[in-house]
Amino acid sequence: MQKPFIVGITGGSASGKTTFLNKLLASFAPEDICLISQDNYYHERDQQITDQNGIINFDLPSCINAHEYAQDVLKISRGETFSRKEYTFNNPNVVAKDLIFKPAPIVVVEGIFVFYFEEVAKLLDLKVYIDAKEYIKLHRRILRDKVERGYDLDDVLYRYTHHVAPTYEKYIKPFKNDADIIIPNNNQFERGLEVLVSFLNTKIGQ
């Protein structure tokens, strides 16, 4: 089997990465693409850091087991299959699955810190940055966290102001210029997606 072509995709929280990724994955046969998400590498809740008000900050690089993340990306780059327990965002109503990751011609490594983590970044063949304006990201975050995660508005705004925004400025935005492709996603990303899919098809002989 050919060596996987590894694509790193990052962007600020609520920049639209998940929607973009779903469209990207749907553009290829399942056997041609594999997604490795940073979300499945969170440390356990009791290992997380709390802020000055006792609120856990899930938006710090230290929240993620970066070494294990990098080691798994390295494994798949070598053609090895691995498994990982699904992260359920501390939702007690969701039973975590055992996820199996198999090598594929295209491997997508996704997460807000994939450019920041040097051990991961050095394994990437292509870096893609999903960009969106701050007020749009905030609006999306409010909708997502209220509907999907059950947070009230005050909690969402607190986390965005004290955790999400500072993390973006310190750990994500500075690496925007490291990207090979920047895809704006204020209204739509179809043109950027089309360019990326066309390029990746050349990597699998399509």
From TrEMBL:
Alphabetic keyword roster: Kinase, Transferase
Entry keyword Manganese: no
Full protein name: Uridine kinase
UniProt keyword Translocase present: no
Cross-referenced Gene3D superfamilies: P-loop containing nucleotide triphosphate hydrolases
Phosphoribulokinase/uridine kinase domain boundaries: 6-185
Matches recorded under InterPro entries: P-loop_NTPase (IPR027417), PRK/URK (IPR006083)
Gene Ontology molecular function terms on file: kinase activity
Organism superkingdom: Bacteria
